[in-house]
Structure formats: structure tokens, C-alpha cells
Amino acid sequence: MFNSFGNILKLTTFGESHGTAIGGIIDGFPAGIKVDFEAIQNELDRRKPGQSKIVTQRKEPDTVEFMSGIFEGVTTGTSIGFIIKNTNQKSKDYNHNTDVYRPSHADYTYDKKYGIRDHRGGGRTSARETANWVVAGALAKQLISHIEINAFTSSVGEVFMVKPYQDLDFTKTETNIVRCPDEATAEQMIEKIHEIRKAGDTIGGTITCVAQNVPIGLGEPIFNKLHAQLGQAMLSINAVKGFEFGSGFCGAKMRGSEHNDAFLADGTTQSNLSGGIQGGISNGMDIYFRVAFKPVATIMQHQETINAAGEATSIQGRGRHDPCVVPRAVPIVEAMTALVLADFYLLNKMRRTQ
Amino acid sequence: MFNSFGNILKLTTFGESHGTAIGGIIDGFPAGIKVDFEAIQNELDRRKPGQSKIVTQRKEPDTVEFMSGIFEGVTTGTSIGFIIKNTNQKSKDYNHNTDVYRPSHADYTYDKKYGIRDHRGGGRTSARETANWVVAGALAKQLISHIEINAFTSSVGEVFMVKPYQDLDFTKTETNIVRCPDEATAEQMIEKIHEIRKAGDTIGGTITCVAQNVPIGLGEPIFNKLHAQLGQAMLSINAVKGFEFGSGFCGAKMRGSEHNDAFLADGTTQSNLSGGIQGGISNGMDIYFRVAFKPVATIMQHQETINAAGEATSIQGRGRHDPCVVPRAVPIVEAMTALVLADFYLLNKMRRTQ
Amino acid sequence: MFNSFGNILKLTTFGESHGTAIGGIIDGFPAGIKVDFEAIQNELDRRKPGQSKIVTQRKEPDTVEFMSGIFEGVTTGTSIGFIIKNTNQKSKDYNHNTDVYRPSHADYTYDKKYGIRDHRGGGRTSARETANWVVAGALAKQLISHIEINAFTSSVGEVFMVKPYQDLDFTKTETNIVRCPDEATAEQMIEKIHEIRKAGDTIGGTITCVAQNVPIGLGEPIFNKLHAQLGQAMLSINAVKGFEFGSGFCGAKMRGSEHNDAFLADGTTQSNLSGGIQGGISNGMDIYFRVAFKPVATIMQHQETINAAGEATSIQGRGRHDPCVVPRAVPIVEAMTALVLADFYLLNKMRRTQ
Amino acid sequence: MFNSFGNILKLTTFGESHGTAIGGIIDGFPAGIKVDFEAIQNELDRRKPGQSKIVTQRKEPDTVEFMSGIFEGVTTGTSIGFIIKNTNQKSKDYNHNTDVYRPSHADYTYDKKYGIRDHRGGGRTSARETANWVVAGALAKQLISHIEINAFTSSVGEVFMVKPYQDLDFTKTETNIVRCPDEATAEQMIEKIHEIRKAGDTIGGTITCVAQNVPIGLGEPIFNKLHAQLGQAMLSINAVKGFEFGSGFCGAKMRGSEHNDAFLADGTTQSNLSGGIQGGISNGMDIYFRVAFKPVATIMQHQETINAAGEATSIQGRGRHDPCVVPRAVPIVEAMTALVLADFYLLNKMRRTQ
Predict the structure, then answer these.
(1) Nearest to C114 among B1, B77, B113 (CB)
(2) What is the C-alpha R_g of chain A?
(3) Which of A316, A285, A328 is nearest to A54 (CA)?
(4) Residues 6+ positions from A251 with CB-CB distance below 8 Å
(5) Which of A165, B36, B284, C325 lies at a 20 to 30 A Cα distance from D236?
(6) Domains of chain A listed by start with CATH number
């Protein structure tokens, strides 16, 4: 239950950043789906380190090997096991951290919780885990291929995408390394990240995700509301500090007469401040939400901290880390969105009789 | 799975606003806990309608009846069944809505999903369901009585509590009807709600929740991160549009060198921008988060909409509704927080050997 | 998880024999099913005490009250809450047992596990709990009304039904109080139970259950095999000591050349020693299995035992108990079978694409 | 949920007999356990093909590779991923079966359920899957090392172990290839299997399992009764047709006055016909149960059957198969028993407060 996600389409994962491999098992995937392996690899490539100058220079080929559940290119309905080998685990980079707690990392909490610490690159806490999610999400996308899911970088520090998503051309997201579909804003963002990296620092940002052509009726009413499950999915991603959908935190300042989302004659709604979800269930309008990422904790600067013995000491980042996590997190946000929607899509098949 | 919450301490619920009763089953509650029934009723009273001039005037005594799992005032370790009778269900208030979809309500999505609609006060979508959660949360609080959980109204519309929570005296939260522990801000909020109600309108707001004395080590690393579970819990509450913890959306604008939360010699951290959670696991510092509520959808104004046949029509709210949901949601936020923390508290007992 | 049964169609229950009520929540039941309440009550009547001379004379009307999930006689897709009030709880009958452990009852294990004991009629361990299952099973039957489920008493002590089930007329099961569709055997069984009761003793027996018109494909391959889930369901019933399906324990003595179940041209199989299940999945043939019940532990005879202080003492049954549990267990076996089949029926809807 | 087993200590698996590897993820295993890798390999060797003359001559080294969750030989509390490579998959042996349904195999049901068939050695239905269980069970044994679990072959066809288990020396189980701790009976069993194999036939049998030094209080009262979970575990093993514990099917013939299991002054019981479990919870006495295995379906004889087109055809087994599955199933029964007991052992840690 701790390393699993989903109700019916369930992903269970394992793996430490610096072990031999990470991997997972996808359970509940229906039979008879032709798998597009290239599309899966493509998603992994969008997430992988070393892909551009503004991300970590750690190089991992991130090649997924499927070991079951697919026969002659088609899913069989049985559990899909896969691994991604770790090929470039420079554990030596981390040896100096053996007993020092890095600020804003999970070293301290893991050590206290488990009484044991895998200090190699954060062990299980490493964001490398999310490569597993991208594999599962890429498969999920193929199950719900009628739904379009597009995430993009909507802010880096104080540089914001100010245009509404309706004015953007999502086919442009991949044309730049920061994954912002607006060229001018993308340039500013990239410049900001370069500046931050030179300072040995890191910076936060936000990702906006839009799901379109979502069928009406996805989501369960009480504790599996569509947006609650999306929220949990996003808050599971490393470095995420907040989630809002539709009107979000702005909605908290509004009046009902402004906020209400009037129905038009064709069943669509006027403002879609609802964000495509009403009462936890999709209403057929665009689903959109925003995810906040804090700055990466590993900075190339001197920091005061303590070690496992509780003694004051200091630390300076030396591994290969991202100055801003957001560009590489775009495919992760999409993958988790796909997993949530595919899960509810399958659940919905049981909802009505006949 | 759809009407259940929690991993080990599991709440399963049922009930429509206008049926004979709502209720639930709490499973996994340990044996041997002496139950303070008055404390439970007290929490229900904080949530109940009709408690003050700024909430709905619908009157429900909201008395919980426990039917199992407690013997001679002590929990037995078996499942705890309870009901809360609905005594004041004026279904007639709702008869005019039989086939009209109320804007920003879940009428439309339920009808499309289930092919059937219980139009009496929203059926299962009614926030009356949250009375069940308050019962379970009040019991959970008694299980983790060493942890202090305090929520309060931190904004109503544009009226914000500007003081940091550290400067507040939580014993003052219940001294005013809006549940803001700062007297001056509370007055402004109450005034704002009165003004909104007179206009036949509604308004959104936010609640901040602080959990103190939380043991180190609560939360599971990957998909049951403490903040992800809190996020899902909060996003399950009716009208919630956003969740952020620690630095939240502000953290997305910051640099790593500003944001990092340095360890002090005693194991505490300096800024607690982490919000008491690192890598999904509590670090012993205060946990704090903020929840955004949209304005209540039922307004006493004329609105254009459609009916089940897709014909344009109009609607005007007539039932007894809240102008601002936030004051009554404060005990709900606390209850769900208690459920999440108690669940992880129990889970943690199995984490280590010996 | 402890008081819940089922994957998708999930029953969660509560209740002690001598509390105010027992009850449950059925989650995952699809919308749009017209409920036959009389059929549900009829199943409860088959299980209820006091129905004939060979069962306990305790009288409980066992009337179920549905509190949610059904609107105007049709299921709404939301959780179905129900209670059955306890009206005849003579706790005084049990007061003498306060600290004595009754042999072959669960008094000792509950006391040791939970450190607390609800001595009133066994508390949660009472078979009264199974009335909840009968309600849920009766609803499940209505969901899969194309499947015919027939259980019957196949032995009482050494009195066995020797005819194969194919030679029986299931419409005769309810024509006698022991629920054996063969008149002559039924008479012998009834006589045996009378004799046993007069001796202040109790006796074991077996129930055979046959499910016909089961669609091909129910069951999941590895850990939710159809027969494994049926086995767990049956072993959850009080007093059950064994489960076998198809050739069962006899199959363990056979050779492959005798046991193999050859396919005929129409897709049916020759011997059906498989019991309608191959590799955990239904093959469309009759599913049949047998369940062993030990004799009821409460006998009207003097027995040596110990009390909570570990002192030797003696006990003599005084409450109102069944001399043989099997006749009343027939509807329970059917109910649990219906729950398992309905659960897999719903799961199967998601198995294939398109 | 379909390929997972356990509540808290959860095993999720994948893999087809003739893919590149099988494997699994063990979730919920506590931190701080020193792993004895040799003991794990030893259990795999007990299960592996080719180990003696009375089992299939297919050769698989069955070497497990752990990929996560263990650091410097000690469990870390995170999920444990492992694979076992398939090195000897002679798919050609199976090519002739492409569209023929083998009698008493799962070819037909899988094909009908999933609409796709992996005909290579049965795909996911192959008992090779149980190697995964042996790995997980061997780890579970190390978690509950104070409990002794001993299974043995108690019958092969009509050759029965007639001595009660109390008269056996379990250290002798591994001294012969059929895994029966009584030398004389073992010889008869081996002779029987040789005879059957020469005839190109197969034969069924039973395994008895005994768990000793089980703490009082394992098991959950209603739907997770200890024996119900053991039953489900055993019925998940390929070829199992029945399960009984304690007095089992014999108990169904007994009277209460014979069957009741009187408490002695020291809290032990006299007859232990209860099989160490009362009300679903362990009472500290020996737990013992018996599992029935049908004969292996693949025989080296000519059999009539049909193909996917529904045409009559015939088949003759050609792969390398076991004449009797029971000797190799002994470690599987022990492994699943260990998983069930370890799961309840962890669950029990949360049962009481303090």
C-alpha cells in the first residue's frame, strides 16, 4: 500500500537511485492494447537527466525493459513488470554525506523513521523513482488515447506565463528546453535558470497541466474525487508544495455570483472556473490544474547543518543536480495525470449496469 | 474503496442529506481507548448548521449514536458503527430542482455518471456527509491526544489573517463565530459575511491548519507521503479548490539558498519552510498547511442554467444555505487531519522490528 | 480492511450480537438496479433464529432498514448503508460467563488479543454478524440474477446426501426445515438433529453449493482466483473448518488420466472434476463446492474450563443455541457466493478494451 | 489487487514462464532485518525443477537478484524488488499447442477472458510464478523466525502418512526426495511416483503444514480470519482443490461434546481439534492444516480436446513436467504460510494502545 498508486490500474514500484535497477509492476492493465514502445521511450527521454544544458548533467540512458504482460507487442491482461537499469550511479559523489543531514532533504526523516540510512544519492527518496511513473503513465496514455494531456512550465521563480492556456499552442512545448509553449516567456525562463545555476543556486517554479476531451463521469464522489486523486498524485512528486485546480486559491477570494459556472444549452459551462470537475466528477470541460515546486535542495553553496550524532557541521553540494526541477517534471506531471484518468476510466466501466 | 478513507484506520461512510440517516464504520481503531463522548458531540456542534447567524439556518441536532465497537465506554478493537439521524430534511425545499442542473453543483455530473439523480438537497454530494468525518476525526483525536491540531479561518474573500500562526492564541478560535483567533480580523470577516449574505451572495475563503507535537517519522515515502495524504483529505472536502503546505505556492518563487531549512544542533530546523514534512515524513516541527474554499454555489440570486432535457431555464436558490462555508469547515479540516495523522501513527508501529 | 470483504463490490460491517444494532455498508454497487426488498427479507427469514424446531429458539425479527444508496426503489450508485436492530438481546443469559472462557469459543483469543472482552453473547464473534452478509448477498444476487446459486445441506453428522447434485431438484430445498432437497435424506437429518438436541449436544455437517449459468471468465489469475476467493468467503463463516471445490480432496487420490476434464466440441467439458474453474477462472460449467462445519461449541452439558485468572472452573451452556448450524447456514453460503461472483462480474467489465 | 497478496506485508508479482524473467515487489517489510541470502536460495532450491528424479527435468538455476530495499545486507524499510531470470525457456516445446486447449489447463479460460493467449508454457498460469512466492516467504520467515513452519507430503495418491504429525521428526523431511518425514512411507510414495511416471501419467496428493510457537492473537475477527487467509493462500497455489484446518472435514461428522477443545489450567487446550485457531485468531497451540493437490494436468498420453476454432483434435504432452506436484509444493506451502503469519504479526503491533 505504501509503494502502490491507483485503485484498479495499480502501479507498484521499487528502487533506489544508486542500486542496480529501479522498476515496477503495473497491475490491472486491460488485455488487447497494442503497445507503442517508442512513445514510452520518448517520454522517458523527456524526463531523463543530461538532456539539455539546464538540467543535471548526470547521464542515464533510462532504457526500460518490459519483462511480462506483453506478448508479441500486445498487452495480455496480466501484470506488466519492468525495470530500468541504473548505469551511472557514482556513489562516490555521495560518500561524504554518509552521516550528514542535508538541509531540506529527507536524510533526517528517513534515518529517524527506519533507523537505517541509504546515503547513496538519497536512496529511495531520489526523484529517479519518477522514471518508473513515466513508464506507467506512458502506457496509461495509450489506454486513454482519446484524452489529450498537456503539461507545461508556467513559472520559473518570478517569471510567469501570463497568457491563459487557451491561447497557447501545446505543440510548441517541446520546441524549447524549459518546456514552455510561449517562445518569449521560455527564453526568459531559460535565462533565469542559467543565472541561478551560475550562482550555484536553484529555483522553484510551477507546472500547469490541461486534460482535454475527458469523458463526462470520471471520478468517484466521496474520497476518490477526481481532483483529490490528482492532488495526491501531484503531491507525491518530489519537491511539490501545492496543488490547485480550476479557480484554485483565487477562487477563495471570489463571490458565488462571480464564480458560478453557468450551464449553456449544449451542456458545456461558461467560465469553467470549476476546472472541468464538479462534485469530484469530470463534466466534460477541460480539466486544468497547477502544481508548485520548491527549489531543489541541493545547492552548490556552503550550508550549516548537523550530522547523525547531532554535531554541527557544514556541507556543500557536489553531485550533479538540477538548478530547476520543473522542465524535467513536465512529463512526470503528465504521466501521473494519465495514471489517474486511466484508473477512473476503467472504474467507470463498472458504474452502470447492462 | 470509493467511500472509504485511510490505510489502517479506515472510515467508510454512507448517507444522503435527505435520507433517514447518515453514518459510517470506523475500522482498525485499537482496543482499550476510553471514549470521551462529550468531546465528540462538541466537535459535531462546531460543524452543525444553525449554530450562529453567519451559517445556514437549517437546524439539525446532529446527535451521533454509536452502535458497536465500544463496550462500557472503552473501544473493543472491533469496527465502530455509528449513525446520525436526519431530523429536519425539508425535501420540499428542493422539489423545484428536480430536473434543473444547478450551476457549479454536482447535479449534472452525478446524473450523467449514474443515470439517476437524487435531487433532494444534492443527495450524496451534500456536505452533510462531513458530519460523519467529524465523528471519526474526533475519535482519532483521542487516539493521538498528544498531538495538537488547530485549524482556523485565515481568510474570507479579501480579508486575510496577516499575522503568522506563531503569533496567534488558538484558544481564542472558538471565541467568535467565524473561528479566527485574531479578534480584529474576525470582526472584519464577520462583517464581510453579513454584507455578502444581505446581497444574496456567497464568498470563498481559506483555512489554515497547524499540527504540533507530531512525532518524527509519520508518513510513508512514495505514494503515501504525509502531505499527499493530507492533500487528498482536504481536497475531499466539499468546495475545496487548492492545498499547499509549508512554503506552498510562495516556495515556487524562491531560490534554494533562501528556501533551505537548515538543521540546528537540537535537530530542529531554522525556517520550517518545509512545513514539518521532509520527503513525505514528519520531522517533528510544526506541520502547517492552507486550504482554499470556493464560494458556496447556492446563491439567492437569479441564474441561467439548463434542465435534464438540455433546455435553457433559470433558477434561484431557496433552501437554507451558508453564505460562507469556511467557519463550519474548520472542525472538518481538523477532523480529516486527525484521521490522517492517526492512520500514520498506527502504521508507524509496524515500521521497525523488535 | 479487517471488516471488509470484496474488491470492487465491497461490504464493510459492524455489530455485536447484544448491542443496539448490527449493520453494514455496501460500496461499489452499480446504479440503476431496481431493488426487490421482499427477496432480501426472504433471505433474512431463511437465516433467522426461531424459524423451526431444529434451530435456536432465540427470536429476532431481523428486519433490515436501508438508510442510503436507494432512491425510489432503485440503486443510485452511492454507498448503501443498512442496519438490523437487535431486539431480543437477553444479556442476562450471558452474565454468568463474564470471566469464564467457553471451550472452542473465541472468548480466550479475543481477550488475549484485545485486552478487553465483550462477554455478551460473544460480542463481535457471534454468528449474528452473518445477517449482514445475507443482506449484502441478497442484493448481489439481484445484480447477477442470470446466475443461479443453490446451496443445500449435504450432510449432518454421518447422514450424507449420497446422490450427485445433478439428480436433485433444488426447488425442494425449502420444503423441509433442514434444507436438503432429497426428502428421505432430509428426514434422517432432522431425526438426527432432534436426537442430538435431546442429548444436550450439537453436531457438525456440510453444505454443498452449486452456481449455474456462470459466465466464462470470472476470477483473477494469481491471488484472486475464483475458488480462492470462494474459499476465503466460506472460511469466514463461523464454525467452518474446510473447503473443497470440484474433485476436492478426492482429486488428491486420482491420476491425471482419470482426473483430466476433456473438452467437448461445444466448449463444455466432460467430467467437470474441475468444478467449473480452471486456472482460477470460470469456464462456464457448473461451479460446485463443499463446506465443512464443526458442531456448535455451546452444548447443554457440563464442561471443564478455566477463567480469566487461569483458575479451573466449569461451565454449562444456558443460552438459546442451535443443535446444528448447517440449516441456517445455507442462505449464508449462498449470500457469500453471490458476493464473490458479483464482485468478479463487475471486475470483468474492465478486463477488455473497446 | 489482482497480483498482490497480503494486507500490510504485501507481495506483488509478475512474470510468465517463458518470458525473460519473473519477479516481484515486497512492500511493508520492516527496516533493520539482517537478510540471510543463503536461506532464501536454499528455499528456491527446494522448489526448483530438476532437483531429483521424481520431478520435472526442466533445469532452471532459479537465482534471485534483489534490486532494492536491502542495503549492506540489512532491510531498509523500502520496497524490496527482485527478479529471477528465466534461462531455459524452450518455447519450441510448446509451439504445437498454439491453438489447442489442453484439458484441465487454463488455456481455454485465459483465452476467453482476455481474448489473447500466451501459449508459451501456460504464460502467467505457469506454476513458475510460485518461485516468486518462495522468495517472499523465505524473507517473511526471517521476520518471524521465532515461529517454526514445517510442511511435508502427507499423501501421494492412496499412499497416506498415517502417523499424527506429533510423532514425526521434521528434521527428516529433507532427507528424502518426496519430503515425507517418515522413511517407510516416503519410500512407498517415491515408488508410487516412479510407477506413475513410467505410465506417462500423473498423480495427486496432499501436504500437511504445521506452524508452532505462534504467538496468541494473530488473525483478524471477521473477514481476515487467520484460517481464511491461510485458506486463500493455499487455494492460490496451482492445482490445489481443497483446504481444511484442525478437525477439518472430519469435524463435520462429530458431536460438540467430542469436538470441544477444553482449556487446561495453563491456557493450553486438550484436543486442539481447533487447529490452533479460535474465532479466526491464533490461541497459541499448534496450527495445522491440510491441502489437496489434484494430479498434474499434463500427461504423456493421448487426449481428445478442441482447438480455438472449436474443432475436435487431440494432444499428447511433450514438455518436461512433474508426475506429482506435491514434493516441490512443500516449500511453496511453507512460504505462503510464512507470508500470512508475518502479515498478521505486523498487523498485531497496531492492535493495542500504550
Answers:
(1) B77
(2) 21
(3) A328
(4) A259, A273, B204, B241, B242, B292, B294, B295
(5) C325
(6) 4-348 (3.60.150.10)
Question: Phi then psi for B235, rounded to 5 degrees?
Answer: -70, -10
Q: Which three cell numbers stand for residue C214?
A: 456462470
| Partner-chain contact D33 B346, CB within 8 Å | no
Rg from Cα positions in chain B: 21
Q: How confident is the model at residue A18 (pLDDT cuts 50, 70, 90)?
A: confident
Give the 3-state secondary structure of residue C89: coil
Give me C18's grid cell: 447484544
Residue A319: exposed, middle, or buried by beta-carbon count in 10 A (0-12, 13-18, 19+)? middle
Min CA distance, B171 vs chain C (Å)?
A: 36
C-alpha cell recorded at residue A64: 526500460
Q: Is the CB of residue D231 less than 8 Å from the CB of residue C243? A: yes
CB-CB: which of C30, C79, C350 is closest to A8?
C350
The three cell numbers of residue B320 are: 437554507
> B-chain residues within 8 Å CB-CB of A7?
1
3-state helix, strand, coil in chain C (%, to 5): 30, 25, 45
One-letter identity of residue D306:
I
Burial of A248 from C-beta contacts in 10 A (0-12 / 13-18 / 19+): buried
Other C-beta atoms lying within 10 Å of the C-beta of residue B265:
11
Q: How far is CA D297 from the centre of its chain?
A: 17
Asked if the model's pLDDT at residue B95 lies above 90, the reply is: no
Strand partners, A11: A5, A26
CB-closest option in A79, A114, A123 to D3: A79
| Residue C162 Cα distances to C178, C331, D155, D344, angstroms | 16, 21, 25, 40
The Cα–Cα gap between C141 and C29 comes to 12
What CA–CA distances, in Å, run from D205 to C149, C261, D294?
A: 30, 18, 7
Which residues of chain D form beta strands (DSSP E)?
A: 4-5, 10-14, 21-27, 64-66, 70-71, 74-75, 80-85, 148-156, 159-160, 205-212, 240-245, 277-278, 281-282, 287-293, 302-306, 312-316
pLDDT attached to residue D50: 85
Q: Looking at the predicted structure, is the pLDDT value of residue D92 above 90?
A: no
Q: Residues A188, A190, A192, A195: what is their CA dihedral angle, to the nearest 10 degrees?
A: -140
The model's pLDDT over C189-207, given as tens digits with 9 standing for 90+, comes to 999 999 999 999 999 999 9
> What's the grid cell of residue A351?
458504474
Cα–Cα separations (whole angstroms), residue D173 to D113, D322, D341 = 40, 19, 22
Q: Diameter of chain B by CA atoms?
A: 68
Chain centroid offset of residue A232 CA: 11
Instruction: Read off the C-alpha cell for B194.
Output: 453579513
**Is the Cβ–Cβ distance between D35 and D70 less than 8 Å?**
yes
Residues of chain C contacting A222 with CB distance shorter than 8 Å: 79
pLDDT tens figures, B277-306: 999 999 999 999 999 999 999 898 888 888
Residue type, A34: K
pLDDT value at residue D123: 84
Cα A88 to Cα A15, A85, D348: the distances in Å are: 15, 9, 42
Angle, in degrees to the nearest 10, between helices B130-143 and B37-47:
140
Q: Is C198 exposed, middle or buried (0-12, 13-18, 19+ CB in 10 A)?
A: exposed
Q: Distance between CA atoms of C238 and C227, rounded to whole angstroms?
A: 19
Instruction: Catalogue the E-assigned strands of chain C.
Output: 4-5, 10-14, 21-27, 64-66, 70-71, 74-75, 80-85, 148-156, 159-160, 205-212, 240-245, 277-278, 281-282, 287-293, 302-306, 312-316
For chain D, state the CA radius of gyration: 21
Return d(Cα D178, Cα D173) in angstroms, integer.
8
